[in-house]
Amino acid sequence: MPNIRDVAKKAGVSVTTVSHVINATRYVEPHTEARVRRAIDELGYRPNILARGLRRGETRTIGLLIPDNSNPFFAEVARVVEDAGFNEGYSVILCNSDISDEKEAIYLDVLLSKQVDGLILISTNNHYHHLHRALEARVPLVVVDRELPELQVDQVLVDNQKGGYLAGQHLVKLGHRRIGCISGPKDIIPSAGRVSGFKQALAEAGIELQPEAIEAGNFRYEGGEAAMTALLNRKLKLTAVFATNDLMAIGALNALRQAHLRVPGDLSLVGYDNILQAAAVSPALTTVAQPVTELGQLSVSLLLERLKDPDRPAQRILLTPNLVERESSQVIPRIRLMKKRGILNSQLAAIISAMGHTDMLVIGDSGLPVPAGVPCVDLAVTAGLPGFLDVVKAVAEELQAEKLVIASELTEKDSDLPATLREIYPEVPVQNLPHEEFKKLTRQAKAVVRTGEQTPYANVIIVSGVTF
């Protein structure tokens, strides 16, 4: 293998002159430089970049440590970092911790031993004890996508609280109230932030995310599939699910397909990350997009700034995600189940589909007085109490009722009615009211449905989305 002395001998110059040509450290006459470069090409000489860098105190390399290179989100971050580093004259050494604290610590030592100029780290979790090795070695460090408030280092983060809020807000606007969530590992801050923001959006709409409607996954495809299966097995009658990353959402999609449930016809699904596969699956996944390009470029930019000015104050940059609406979420289909059961006529189906979550609907017998201006639909129920209860249950489910109200003087004729309603629809409180109060609510109703027969079991107001 030729060395710098061979080049100098062939070009008829000193070793120092060859060094100045290679490193551009001093002016060299053009004809002399041309002879040196011709000698380099003819001999196939390659400068020892590492040795040259060590003499200067730099290696022009950046260490990048990510938790899971099988996750397309992290793979895309790595691509952006590599491109940005290359454009600045740096090579990037990529290490994958495979969501292992042990591997992360080992690879950190490997990168430090290779004397990288700086480190960009997406940590496996929220622990930071082994990062002190880098700080003690005075190697510049940028933490990405994992907030570590205890460390005074540069950080580039995405507002996960905001992202989860966007997902929840989207599902609420579509009319969903029975909503589930597939969270990530409990010890990873991004997952906790997304779930917190999601709960906040639901709470603002008067919806509580029940503990049994949350199932933890592992941020991987198989974890999402298993979590969705667990939620389905609980028979929670969910109409929508938010998965805290896209890989788990795609796994959940497969679980729903295996259960012969349609997305979004039977259940709406929202993911997080906006990986390439989110747009490629069928149906295309509604998701919260992370600003990957900005995330990767800023991390390199902060690292290079730190290399130039090691003593400047640490920076914390918080980026904002955005919602990408696709095919996997839709307005809740209010009348689908009722039509399937064959208990609705077209008039009532049209009214139900047009009703909002702040409306009330009265179901009563054929003798029920109808206030002026309130639409009335006649619905024949010939099966007595069972038929009447079928109508109540179906309408309550489709309107996602928060309360069933019964006129107390009628329920006295059949004291089993409240208990029966509680049994068939335990999620909804059943409230008895004096008849005068009941009539006041009737006047506020959006529509009145008459069951077509005289029965002591009638006179029920179904309330959706409001309390009183």
Short structural summary:
By secondary structure, this protein is an alpha/beta fold.
Describe the structure.
This protein is α/β, with parallel strands linked by helices and 468 residues long. Helix content is 44%, strand content 17%. The strands form three sheets. It has a six-stranded parallel beta sheet with strand order 2-1-3-4-5-11, sandwiched between helices. Helix 9 (189-204) links the parallel strand 6 and strand 7 (214-216). The radius of gyration is 33 Å and the shape is elongated. Mean pLDDT is 83; it is low at 334-340.
Name the descriptors.
468 residues; 18 strands; single chain; 44% helix
Termini separation comes to: 88 Å
Mean pLDDT, rounded to whole units? 83
What is the number of beta strands?
18
Strand count, sense and barrel status of the largest sheet are: 6 strands, parallel
Structural class: alpha/beta
The best one-word shape is: elongated
- Strands in their spatial order, largest beta sheet: 2-1-3-4-5-11
Strand composition percent:
15-25%
The poorly predicted ranges are 334-340
Count helical runs: 19
Helix fraction, binned, reads 40-55%
Could you tell me the radius of gyration in angstroms? 33 Å
